[in-house]
Amino acid sequence: MTSTSVLSVNDVSVSRAGKNILGPINFEIMPGERWVILGPNGAGKSTLLQVLGTKLFPTKGTVTVLGKEMGKVDLFELRTRIGTCGALTNEEIPYYEKVHDVVLTAAYAISGRWNEVYDLWDESRAMALLTTFGVRELGGRIYGTLSEGERKRVQIARALMTDPELLLLDEPAGGLDVGGREDLLRRFTEFSRDPLAPATILVTHHIEEIPVGTTHALLLKDGLIAVSGPAESVITSEHISAVFDTSISVTFDSGRFFARATG
Ligand SMILES: Nc1ncnc2c1ncn2[C@@H]1O[C@H](COP(=O)(O)OP(=O)(O)O)[C@@H](O)[C@H]1O
Ligand SMILES: [Mg+2]
């Protein structure tokens, strides 16, 4: 690994219930890169993302995130530098918490508002992030009453509250209708244009959910990396067909990728 990488994965494997479900895999992410991890259901994408978010220890190998090797550092401190959004995040958020507080409490890497004193700065950052992701008007609502799409937006705002150096998103557009997906992708791309935006890794199994501005792609199949590298050289008809076991034609238009079955 080079000293400047955002993360470095070395010979990592994960076994569950005696079965190898991931790896061994190796890869490295550099500052400013925006990655997508693509692969069919069950490929191991979420497992990999949980490892990268330091929520799951690999069975073998080493993971170095933001210069810290998992297992050798205080994970509580490291996790404040990583923003995560996905099924696990959703479970961590109390049903009855106010949306505004869901975002605000992330500043202290805790869930559930209690007695903390929040700075005006934190308050305005929470509002700005809700605005960025188009859900400012939901600030006063109870989180549990939001639609799936609204929850995803709130989760992303929450993930960004600590100004993380690494952002991990597991299927952020999953379950959204086409209008919701397009709006979220546009907002995400807009946000990512900021030179200070964190390195991001987005997991999806839909080629259409890859945001404009994605620089690199990693294709995962049966727990192993099939191909990885610059997005346009990885997300091709040949590679996607092989990984999804279907003859697929991939096209690239205005920064977006589109897929359709052929034959
Ligand atoms: N806790 C677990 N125990 C046993 N098997 C698991 C567990 N979590 C995931 N798996 C299995 O590991 C594989 C990869 O799962 P996952 O990472 O969720 O895939 P993806 O996100 O790509 O759909 C799947 O075959 C899944 O059934
Ligand atoms: Mg998954």
Architecture overview:
- This protein has 263 residues and is of the alpha/beta class.
- The chain has a single domain, classed as P-loop containing nucleotide triphosphate hydrolases (Rossmann fold).
- The chain has helices at 45-52, 75-79, 87-92, 99-104, 120-132, 148-160, 178-192, 231-234, 237-244; strands spanning 7-16, 19-29, 34-38, 60-65, 68-69, 82-85, 166-170, 199-204, 216-221, 224-230, 248-253, 256-261.
- The strands form three sheets. The chain has a six-stranded mixed sheet, with helices on both faces. The protein has a four-stranded antiparallel sheet with strand order 2-1-4-5, with helices on one face.
- It starts with 6 loop residues before the first strand and ends with a strand.
- The chain binds adenosine-5'-diphosphate and magnesium ion.
- Adenosine-5'-diphosphate binds at residues 16-17, 21, 39, 41-47.
- The site of adenosine-5'-diphosphate has 11 residues, from helix 1.
- Keywords: ATP-binding, Nucleotide-binding, Transport.
- One of its GO terms (cellular component) is membrane.
